[in-house]
Every structure is written in C-alpha cells, then in structure tokens.
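Example 3.
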Amino acid sequence: MSPGARASRPHRRMAPTVERAGRPRSQGGWRGLVVPAGVLIAAELAARAAGLQSDSLARPSEIAAVGIAALIDGTMLHATGQTLVAAFAGLAIGTSLGLAFGILLGLFRTASRLAEFSVEAFRPIPSVALIPIVLLIFGFGYRMEIAIVAFATFWPILILTRAAIAGIEPRLLEVSRALGFGLGRRVAKIVLPAALPRLFVAFRLAVGIALIVAVTVEITGNTLGLGYALMDAQQSLRPALMFALLLWVGLVGWGLNAVLLWAQARLFGPAAAVEATP
Amino acid sequence: MTLRAAAAPVMAAPPAAREPLIRFRAVELTLSGRRILDPISLDIGRGEFVCVVGPSGCGKTTLLRLIAGLYLPSGGQVLYDGKPVAGPRQDIAIVFQDYGKALLPWRTATGNVSLALEAISMPRAERPARIAALLATVGLSNHADKFPGQLSGGMQQRLQIARCLAQAPTVLLMDEPFGALDAMTRQALQDEVLALAASSGATVFFVTHDLEEAIYLGDRVVALRPNPGRVADMFDVRLPRPRDQLTTREHPEFLRLRRALFDFIKESEA
C-alpha cells in the first residue's frame, strides 16, 4: 500500500458527516417549498370558496395576520421567553448531571454495572407522568417545569455519554496512561475531546426533548409559556391564534436545531468529524 | 548523556559491565486464567538497543507492556533502575504500532507533540520552541499544522515518535512500529531511530516480527518461543555502527545471524 492511499482513508471516513451537515439546505431548498406553498394556497382558496366560519379551523391568511399581530404586541415573544427559560434551565441541569454520571459510568465498568438496574428501571418512566408528583412538590411555575425537563433530558444524555465514552479508541486511553495523566487531565485532554462530537449530537437531541417536554408541561396545566398560550387560544375559541402559535413553536424548534447544526459544523469541522460517525 | 552519545556509534558495548537498567527477575504472567509468560529472566543495559522477535503469541508485546507498567507481573519482579515497576512513568515512552489510533485526531501535529509536554507540565511559553525542535528532528517541520488524518502513514509514525521524544525518555519502547509501513519508508525510519537512539543515548526495547530488522537495529536480539511465552535464545549482534542499509546487510556477521534466526524460527514453528 502506498503512503498516499493510506493518507486518504481518514478523509473518506470524514466525508459522509461533512456532507450530511451541509446538504439538506444547500441542495433543492426552494423545491422543498413547492408542496407547502401549494397546500397553503389551496387551503386559502378552499376556505374562501366555502365561506369558512369555524371554531377549530382558520384561513391561512387569517393565521398569518393574527400571528404577526401577536409577534408585534409582544405576547408571543413573552411566552416564547418563558418556555425557553424553563426549557434551558431544565436542560442545563439535566445535561450537566447526565454528563457527569455518564462520564463516571463510561469510565468505570464497576460503576456502570452497579447502576445498570437503576438506570433501566427509572429511564422508561415517561417524564410527563411525573407532573402530578412534581406539582405537589413545587406547585405551578418555573420550578416544576424545570424539574420535569431536567428529568427528561438527564436520561438520554446519560445513556449517550456513557456510550460515547465507552466508544473511545482504547489506544488513546492507553496513551494517556502511558503519559501519566491523572483522572482529571485524562478526562479534560483525552476523554472529553474524543467524545465531544458524539456528546454534541446527544445535546442536540436533548434540546429537542427539552422543548417538547416544556411545551407539554405547559399544555397540561402550567400557566406559563407557549403551551399555555396555545391552551388559552383554544379555550377562548381563537383558532387563528392557535394555529399561529403552533407554527411558531415549530419555527422555534427548527431555529434551535439550525443554530446547533451551524455550531456543530463550526466547532468540529472536518478535523474531528471522524469521531462523530455514530 | 553526551558521553554516551559519543560512545554509542563505535561498537555495541557489552552491557554486563554496568548495572542493568531493566531487569526481569523470574517474571511470569497469567491473564484471566491463561498463562501468558513462563518465568522469564532478562537484563537490559543502559543505552542498549534490544530487539525481540518470535512467532505471534510468544509474548513480545507482553514483555514491552510489563516494562511500561501497563501490566503487572503475576510472579517475579520487573525492576527499573533497581526499583519494581508499579505503573507507567514519564521517562518510559511507548511507540505503538497502530499510529493511526495512538494520535489524537482532533489535534494538529503540533498539538499532538504538545500533549506529551503538557504531561510533564512544561510551562506554556516554553512549548512552541520545543515542539518546533522535535518536529524538525523527525522531519515534519512543514506539516506542523496538519491533522493526523492529513498525514501519510510514515509521517504519522514519525509524529508519534516525536511525541515520545518530547517526554525526553530514558527508555523507548517500540511495539512493531514499522510493521504497517512500506519497505522504503520502513528503511528510512529504521535509520532515523538508530540516529535518535545514538544521539539521545536512550535504551530501546524494540519488538518486531521482521528478523532482518531486528539484526539491523539491535545490539542484541532476544528470541521468544510461544505457548506460554519464554526466552528461547539470545544473539549478540557484533556489527559495526553506524549501520548502513547496504553494507550492514551484506556483512558476513549479518548473514550468519540471519541464518541462525531463520533456523530458530523454522524450528520453533515446527
């Protein structure tokens, strides 16, 4: 084998991840808009033709007008702020705890075996099933929502961190032993950087979960944020506002993911993309 | 250090005169119920270049890992500088065969060398000059900002050697370091390692499956036999230094050793 052939191998392994990050929006972006735009126009025309007067449906143009009005008067942004504060506070707690325990379980096989049963017993509990209990403890408000988001994000971060650590090239850990690194420097210089691309994927997943769970908690009763605004619009029979909020929640989620994808490409680039392949 | 470097190129000095740096005293090893090594006794002198050969499964790499402190013996003692080896130490550096896995893919060549300097807690301000010097030693000055994935196999192995040299090691443990390289690159690196060993005075423990490489590099070749691993024979290599890819390999002594080792391997495989 020539040195050139060997040198090219890591590049090939990088290629899929690099492409995956860049392709979805760069290729055929406008073509993807044809179908939704067509559906919107059709819905608008149909509603006007039928002279729609409904408590559960609304014309697209109406939804847009109400949505823009709610954005301008600040109510929608206020609710968004509340949801994001709760989601990110919960995410911060869930992620840091999940990361700490995940590293512990990933590095020490004994700890992993000891925790195996507990993890598998608690993990399947649907986070929203905790709402009644957490409500008793904290009452309505931020603390209750943050606690549930933290619980919901803790498990995927824990499991994926443990897997990411366990998937680190053993030779690298041996190199760190041979160099005489203690636990702290081993984690900081070898373990975390080696696992970082995968940890970031886990974080992206957790951000999505945090938003879903936060809105769910708000819908089931917490008087905060976008979920509550949705319920409020529904109960006051304002379908246009309800649909506007629904679209807005989708946009917020999409925007968060886009920011994270951009950050991922910026942070890791091609150099570490090798490790990102799950 | 300088004295030894001056003395090294002349002739393989008989190691018996001085206190050995590494001593295996009836070392045996059993890993999860499997006997890996029968009691082995072996002395390695300061500044000596010892090559270890033998069929696969004979415990070559195990011996290396015992010196490195990555394994601890089940019986007997491995002494380093008179004291039992308790774990990895910074003055013992290991060059692994799978250079692609032993380098940090997220750090550049500079960053990978820096890792070893961080391990010895060298102040940040002193690192760049030292890194530049080390990369120059292994001929990678023009590739300082490249990531391992952008380097050829030979360059990656050079980089790993540079990182090991950054530890300023007394002992260099090399585990089939050139096994995966093409013939030309291998010969070039053999000569570089000989020059580095001569100039630094480091003791080298070199595991290989290539008999000619063992003779070409070593002051002594240790031949192991498998199942369980044990020392079968030892050959002193009385070839003049510095060695040369052409004249050394044509030297009658080289040919004699080559035949003796080939006979040994054939016999141990029978």
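The two ends of chain A are 28 Å apart (CA to CA). Residues 1-23, 271-278 of chain A have pLDDT under 50 and may be disordered.
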